[in-house]
Amino acid sequence: MLRRLAARAFWRFSRWTLRTQPAPTQPTILIGAPHTSNWDFILMLCIAWELGIDVRWMGKKSLFRSWRGPFMRATGGIPVDRDNPSRVVAEVVEAARAGEIFGLVITPDGTRSGHTHWKSGFYRIARETGMPVTLGYVDSATHTTGLGPTLEMTGDVAADMDRIRAFYADKTGIRPHRQVTPRLRDESGGQLDGRTVA
């Protein structure tokens, strides 16, 4: 209740407008893009709290040290051990099979400069878990944000990415110079089952 009230206060006084499709009714991978600023995290929380979505997001273990740990976990954070990333996928599968409805937030383009492609982890997780992908967005040109369509990943990587690119084609990140076109390094699909594609 308090989270929804906080979200509604944000939408009322912020220059941002929530324009969204309804929240998914099944476990989903929630893409956050274009992800060009740490302010996107605030927008993501306010979208989730307004729509009543139980969000989870993955972050490196160092983010959960000392005083930050309780806050990160309270907002849905899952610490990732880079030496054993498969554990996170196993936890997601277990939660989905237990009937939990949640959005696993992934930002495949990242915020650091120098990236030229999206990371393919979201696609691999979608295929391994059977979870669909919901396209969350930020558009600084119109100051709108929210959720777009929910898509099944078919295994035809190029075709799936074409649908994703079409949705984000007219969306502009808060810091446009950091924006990355939704494109995987290899869209043939041949390497997506391994860990070599970033």
Automatic annotation (TrEMBL):
<keyword id="KW-0808">Transferase</keyword>
<feature type="region of interest" description="Disordered">
    <location>
        <begin position="177"/>
        <end position="198"/>
    </location>
</feature>
<dbReference type="InterPro" id="IPR002123">
    <property type="entry name" value="Plipid/glycerol_acylTrfase"/>
</dbReference>
<dbReference type="GO" id="GO:0006654">
    <property type="term" value="P:phosphatidic acid biosynthetic process"/>
</dbReference>
<dbReference type="Pfam" id="PF01553">
    <property type="entry name" value="Acyltransferase"/>
</dbReference>
<feature type="domain" description="Phospholipid/glycerol acyltransferase">
    <location>
        <begin position="29"/>
        <end position="138"/>
    </location>
</feature>
<protein>
    <submittedName>
        <fullName>Acyl-phosphate glycerol 3-phosphate acyltransferase</fullName>
    </submittedName>
</protein>
<keyword id="KW-0012">Acyltransferase</keyword>
<dbReference type="GO" id="GO:0003841">
    <property type="term" value="F:1-acylglycerol-3-phosphate O-acyltransferase activity"/>
</dbReference>
